[in-house]
């Protein structure tokens, strides 16, 4: 790994995406095997670090390939577990959506490897102060979601909206990077905010009303927001 910036949390940014992918896989298989209402809690809290893999710097091409392959396989494992769970519970819409997640997770990780393999670096990196800021936000997330995931009537999955709300700060702190891009990219940045807000609105209705209609209404814009998030991170590279 590079030694170019003492302030960059290299070790943390190396480990956290791997841990996040592992937790995602573990939560998904735990849901499939046990149908536990706690499934999805830890991965919902930690999924943000999967998206931050763009900030991991590895000099060796071999280690870079191994690293992103491991992340990809762990995410694929989780996606497959969710697909199997929703097939078993006859939730057609959700298992189709998770096929979409399987494609998005694979494509995103492959593109991160491709960019780094070709010596392309992101125009901005996650610094130590930013990482600590994200971690401090997770305390609030724990406080909010523990009562929700302790509800025996709900069998929830991993959701991305909390991660996206935290990423809002990162995107807008580095808005100057997007200003250098096309008008379409800047437009999609605002679309991303709107879509995540809509998804989060229906997600909270699902938790409050306990109707799976709202879960499905939240899931559609959420996968669209995931695609937008992956695109915006991709555009961070030079």
TrEMBL record:
The chain crosses the membrane at residues 12-32, 38-58, 65-87, 93-114, 187-207, 219-237. Keywords: Membrane, Transmembrane, Transmembrane helix. This is Uncharacterized protein. The lineage of its organism: Eukaryota, Metazoa, Spiralia, Gnathifera, Rotifera.
